[in-house]
Specification:
The complex is a heterodimer of chains A (274) and B (243). Chain A is mainly alpha-helical. Helices cover 66% and strands 3% of the residues of chain A. Chain A is built from eight helices and two strands; from the N terminus they run αααββααααα. In chain A, helix 1 runs antiparallel to helix 4 and helix 1 (27-43) packs across helix 5. Chain A starts with 26 loop residues before the first helix and ends with a helix. Chain B is an all-alpha fold and 243 residues long. Chain B has helices spanning 3-24, 44-53, 55-72, 81-84, 89-102, 107-131, 133-156, 159-185, 191-221; strands spanning 29-31, 38-40. Chain B has a two-stranded antiparallel sheet. In chain B, 47% of the residues are buried. Classes of the chains: A mainly alpha (274), B mainly alpha (243). The interface between A and B is large, with 70 and 60 residues.
Chain lengths: 274, 243
Amino acid sequence: MASLEGLRNVSIGRYVPGTSALHLLDSRVKVGGFLLVVALAAIVNGLAGLAALVIWMLILVTLSGIGLRSTWNSIYAALPFIVVLLLLQLAFTPIRPSDRILLAWGRLRLSWPAVRLVIVALLRFFVLMLAVSLLTGITSSGALIRGVEGLLRPFTHLGLPAHELALVGSVALRFLPLLGEQVESIAMAQASRGLADTRSRWKLAATARRVAQLIVPLFVDVYRRSEELALAMQARCYNGGKGRTHLIQERLTPRDWLALAILLVSSALVAALP
Amino acid sequence: MDDQGIRRVVLAGVLLALTLLLVFTRIGMIPMPTPAGNATIAHIPAIIGGLLEGPLVGLIVGLGFGFASFVNATTPMFKDPMVAILPRLFIGVVAALAYGGVRRLNKRGLSAIAGILLIVLLAAAWQIHADKPILGIVWAVLAVALGVGLWFWLRHQELALVRVGIAAGLGSLTNTVLVLGMAVVRQYMTAPVALVTGLTHGLPEMIVSALITIGVVAAIRNLGGRRKRRPAGTRRSGATKEG
């Protein structure tokens, strides 16, 4: 039953409180920078550019003082899987006659495009892993929502409901531990009545039935809770984001502008690399 | 913001929380004996959001699912936002639109559509058979099984539930097809590998998500005649008028 413990402690990534220069940045800058890095990692296809991105993210993670351990742990856990996937990729990439052959051993031949593809996929994976753990490491969940709302605010003039979207996010974050508790109690109630927690790879139908037994009551409960919350909000005359003020007002300081400038220059450099 | 708007925002938020829970605790990952590892049921909140409150809610919850699976991914394939996030936007939207379309049809209309689908699938099987005989036969057997299953289901199940099931199945299919398609486009998989993964993962996911969605929607909307009505004291603001 060990799997039932700790469900209430779900969180997105791991926030490491700190006072480094990166921690103190405006949350809009953090979220914007993260999106920029993700976009870069998806677009850049060159080896040098991706390698530069990896080094750049490593420097940032070191500066922020959140430590590489958690990132390394998640990469380490996935390593065997990645290796198998990459070997498959190496074996199944079609070889064109014009390709440079690196290694020929019997029927096994390694072509440069296949190897390059594998290296690019690996580097991209590292960049994104580092970027995610950096963002969640230096940003608390509340600040994350604030950052997203702040970034979306200019689009309200185009009819995008920025405040409502941010509200969706904060409702979700507030409900997450509650639902965790709920799952825990449903699972324990079922376990105490003799439903075993079997998760075998081969007992497919049994596992699916077991999950369904857990999920359907959860969904129904979730729906009931959301109805209650909506009713409570209506009763308190909630009327959306218009004319709303905020407890925490964030202003861009010189530090934030400096960070933005560094970010933009470095991404331009990365994009320019081959 | 009107009452409907508040309900939508709150339901989207709560379903989003559920999605995050399913992804991050891995409850929503059903282990499978295939190289790709897990079948997911974490896309079901997006489908349910689409069915209950329309395409926009489905879109938002789908975006959350994509983001969660992107953050939580341990494979290069799902660390690519083009694979992890973009296709997921369409799950709830397709489910909502399909439900809107199917809701107007009666039993005869549904049977007609099932018949046309069967013919199209068999024609495709004939095409595949010419190229790869075994795959064509498998395809044809699956198509016939699907047709017969659908026919039995239409005869024996209440129509409202069949509609929900079809919409949910289509939403799940959207997830499978778009994610694998994107994986092929971005060169994480070759087309044959994607096709096999689609059969081994997509089909069970489709069936499981249809069943779970039917269970949930039936419980919430009081569909499916055998169920007792809830006592009058509990709230169900206008939820019974559809279905």
